Amino acid sequence: MKPGGKLHLWGTVVEEKPDPYVVEVKAVLPDGKAISAGYGVGGKWKKQNAWLVRKLAEEMGLEVAVDKSHDDLLEFILKAL
Fold it and tell me: How many domains does the structure of the chain reveal?
């Protein structure tokens, strides 16, 4: 990303699961177009939570500009430094 660029990231808290843990997400956009994507957690962490997202973002040189995470929902805006 270019300096100042923003990455909107959202997800859900995933407690420790078998490796890899994958879910297929299907959605319909406002224009009626259907889309799908794979979503998963794997590797050494085997989980996903707000603390881990913040840690990994900062290790990659991204600033957490907005954190609206709550309960089991993760919602961030990350900014490239």
Answer: 1
**Model pTM?**
0.70
In order, the DSSP letters of the chain are: --TT-EEEEEEE-B-S-SSSEEEEEEEE-TTS-EEEEEEEE-TTS--B-HHHHHHHHHHTTEEEEEE--BTTEEEEEEEE-
pLDDT in tens, 59-81: 999 999 999 999 888 999 999 99
Which range of residues forms the domain containing residue 11? 6-80
CB 21 within 8 A of CB 38: no
Residue 1 lies in a domain: no
